[in-house]
Amino acid sequence: MCSRPKSFMGIPTATRRSRRRPNSDRRVCRKPLRGSSGCSHAVSNKLEALKNLIPLHDDNHGREMKTDQLFQETADYIVLLQTQISVLQKLVDFYGSGSSTCTAGQPQENQNAV
């Protein structure tokens, strides 16, 4: 039996170092200084921006929308937009994009006349 400390991968225990990232590399929400709520303020700003992107619904009767409700409204709005895109693509496929283009205000059949 050996009295030396056990080694890890051939490196003696005494010379092994901890390899930790410096604090600046960690993506952790640190406690705010002087009582300011920096992280929660940033999240609040992003939630407010998200709320401004979706159309207004009067389901809340003027009350503040909860975060989970905001995410549900956002998901519903995304589905609505995807449905609109699908319908518009089907309309383009049905009517065809056509090789001739129409000018604004003129029907396509009158464009070639004269």
Automatic annotation (TrEMBL):
GO molecular function, one term: transcription cis-regulatory region binding
Annotated signal peptide: none
Region of interest (Disordered), ranges: 1-40
A GO cellular component entry from the record: nucleus
Alphabetical UniProt keywords: Nucleus, Transcription, Transcription regulation
SUPFAM superfamilies, alphabetized: HLH, helix-loop-helix DNA-binding domain
Predominant place of localization: nucleus
Keyword Transcription regulation carried by entry: yes
Cell compartments where the protein resides: Nucleus
InterPro entries reported in the protein's UniProt record: bHLH_AtIBH1-like, HLH_DNA-bd_sf, IBH1-like
Record CDD domains: bHLH_AtIBH1_like (cd11444)
Protein name according to UniProt: Uncharacterized protein
Source organism of the structure: Cinchona calisaya
Lineage: Eukaryota, Viridiplantae, Streptophyta, Embryophyta, Tracheophyta
